């Protein structure tokens, strides 16, 4: 556990801390930082990584299926746990449990914990989470006017088109020219530190969380229960080795900032979601330190 804290969690915390400090002291524009991540850096990371990804298609299918099942179970679990809460709060709990931070937190943790091969698994989960978050998320919060407008919003994201381009190029056995490939690699390499700094800035400017019962409920389910469910669901579906490790590690991630973004967009209980993001990010420090040493014991 101590080794995991020093080698996996500490590097992440350092960058988060610098981001929080800078965000607290300087008047940074969060919207600009988020747009750089969403419209430039993340698409570059997706395109570059998928073009060089060394994972079998069958394993990818099982991994994505397991992640989707885990997310659906998380929504159901949040619904049952917060059944007696008001509708907006119940939906906030559902989204907070199901939508994990597999991007600006999960990717660097996977890289430090499992190496490049584990990072590839985490990237597949992250790209799946992007599609799921921006389709199922608005439906959970009860906004978006139905599935049609929601899907149109998804296809406006550059990362979706980069995924499609990368899959097409792999299917046709095409490669980028060397100069373009190297430039894309440089841009992709800037993504992880930038998204971690972005999360730190958001945490540093978010203020203190309100520790209500729904906040503790969603936080406990996200940090304590989801890793256990990830192990059971992944094993039942047929994941083994590195694929199972990647799923379990991703399920130990805190609630994603995107859950808060969606709650604001659709006028849901954004206060609860914002507090869950902060609480789960803090609790996940211990959670990740506990989960990482156990990964090597998985079948």
From TrEMBL:
Q: Which UniProt keywords apply?
A: Cell membrane, Membrane, Transmembrane, Transmembrane helix, Transport
Do you know which Gene3D superfamilies this protein is assigned to? 1.20.1530.20
Annotated transmembrane regions: 57-80, 123-141, 153-172, 184-203, 215-237, 243-261, 273-296
Classify the protein's membrane topology as the record does: Multi-pass membrane protein
Tell whether Transit peptide is among the UniProt keywords.
no
Q: Where does it mainly reside?
A: membrane
List the subcellular locations: Cell membrane
Q: Which GO terms describe its cellular component?
A: plasma membrane
Biological processes annotated in GO: transmembrane transport
Q: Name one Pfam family in it.
A: Mem_trans
Superkingdom, natural source = Bacteria
> Which protein family is named in the record?
Belongs to the auxin efflux carrier (TC 2.A.69) family.
PANTHER family in the record: AUXIN EFFLUX CARRIER FAMILY PROTEIN (PTHR36838), SLR1864 PROTEIN (PTHR36838:SF1)
Q: What is this protein called?
A: AEC family transporter
Protein species of origin: Deinococcus psychrotolerans
Taxonomic lineage is: Bacteria, Thermotogati, Deinococcota, Deinococci, Deinococcales
